[in-house]
Specification:
The chain has 411 residues and is an alpha/beta fold. The chain folds into two domains: 40-151, Immunoglobulin-like; 157-410, Rossmann fold (3-Layer(aba) Sandwich). 31% of the residues lie in helices and 25% in strands. The two termini are 34 Å apart. Mean pLDDT is 90; it is low at 4-23.
């Protein structure tokens, strides 16, 4: 199925009729969409006043009844800032200096937890708000009072999957999971299908290239491109993500994942190749990357058949469908997301190559219209533009395109 299927009202009606026989499926899709819509963005800052040096990490723990579990650990930016997206609930926070760069909180490492003046652990109740500000976490040389609840080291699989080496034949890249990531993103996450994966062991002599799929997509769509890649010079990485989630959630994850991998491997630059909605998501990633002044540069950006100015069909889906997938709101033409990422201009320091395609008797590539792939402002940002007579997803297997992309990467 292509993404346009889900943006036309009569197609949505057909889909809903197809699954009405399974009321639990429809109800679960609605439930998970509402969960994603109810997620709260929480922000905070970690301050290191200790004598310890190293990457700063912040951890967030969720409290349910008497049970406390670690749900995420992320590296903070240069200013000590961090962002989490969580569901309403009760949470606790810790931070530490990872002096030995092993991603773990060791007993002898400087750390702190969010606490009251008396040293008692502070539990924050996050309510359904658009933004929640967490009080500063201040790390000093003084050891915090030991609390066994903060000894947990297991985090959700999508965070464990940062930098894991997998083969593209791994079952988590199958279409079954890509569909789940769109309709039931939390099931996708719970089953460990998401992550920023390497396809070979890391090599300091090779430049990473991250391949990013679109809505209902999967990394296997890049198989032909990756097979033709000069792996003596480049190492392929793939982002596998639940494409039904809001695009800012996805770009936040990518920012954190690359920051963590840079802490481990100290690569100097990264190339990015994004298809379809992946290209639209990339604009918010690049905004955050530039704002945080990360320690690596983006040395190449390629977007392929991306709905960079949104899709009218997505807006129609938001208006007519009884169940709205959160990503639709961002992809809709004229959405707040589209306006925000285009109010920002791509820096000239990032070489941007724009690829579009068209088909006879179609407005664009059969899915994305040319006016969304190829606006004047996008042409101004690009150092080069390439057009192919190919279908929206079929372009990734088009021999002429695959060979041209290898030349772009080689340059």
């Amino acid at each position: 199925m292509n993404i346009d299927f889900f943006f036309r009202p009569y197609h949505l009606l057909i889909f809903l009729l197809m699954i009405l026989s399974s009321a639990c499926s429809l109800q679960e899709i609605k439930h998970q969409s509402e969960k994603a819509d109810g997620a709260v963005e929480i922000r905070g800052t970690v301050l290191n006043t200790s004598t310890a040096s190293g990457q700063l990490y912040v951890r967030i723990y969720e409290k349910k009844t008497t049970q406390i579990s670690l749900i995420n650990q992320i590296p903070v930016d240069k200013q000590g800032g961090y962002v989490f997206h969580v569901l309403p609930g009760k949470y606790l926070f810790t931070a530490f200096v990872d002096a030995n760069n092993d991603l773990h909180l060791d007993e002898d490492e400087a750390s702190a937890y969010l606490s009251r003046d008396q040293g008692q652990v502070l539990e924050l109740e996050i309510k359904p708000l658009e933004l929640f500000e967490v009080p500063d976490l201040i790390i000093t040389d003084k050891k915090p009072i030991y609390d066994e609840r903060f000894t947990a080291s297991s985090v959700r699989k999508i965070n464990q999957n940062i930098g894991v080496v997998l083969d593209l034949k791994n079952p988590i890249f199958n279409r079954e999971f890509s569909g789940m990531g769109f309709w039931r993103p939390f099931d996708f996450i719970d089953q460990g299908a998401g992550g920023l994966f390497m396809l070979q062991d890391y090599s300091a002599n090779k430049t990473p290239i991250i391949f990013i799929h679109g809505i209902m997509g999967t990394p296997i769509e890049f198989s032909d491109i990756i097979q033709n890649l000069d792996t003596d010079k480049f190492q392929p990485w793939v982002l596998s993500y639940p494409s039904g989630l809001p695009l800012d959630m996805v770009s936040d994850y990518l920012v954190r994942a690359l920051r963590q991998m840079h802490t481990q491997y100290a690569f100097k630059d990264v190339n990015i190749v994004a298809h379809s909605m992946g290209g639209l998501m990339m604009r918010s990633f690049l905004m955050k990357h530039q704002g945080a002044e990360e320690n690596y540069k983006i040395s190449l950006l390629v977007t392929i058949n991306s709905p960079l100015y949104g899709m009218d069909g997505a807006a129609s889906g938001v208006e007519h469908s009884p169940i709205v997938i959160p990503a639709w709101r961002d992809v809709a033409s004229g959405s707040d997301y589209v306006k925000r990422v285009h109010a920002w201009t791509l820096p000239q320091s990032i070489p941007y190559h724009l690829v579009f395609s068209y088909q006879a008797d179609e407005e664009g590539d059969g899915v994305v219209p040319l006016r969304s792939q190829l606006s004047l402002s996008l042409q101004d940002e690009a150092v080069a533009i390439y057009g192919f007579n190919a279908q929206h997803a079929g372009i990734l297997k088009d021999e002429e395109f695959v060979q041209r992309l290898q030349k772009i990467i080689a340059q």
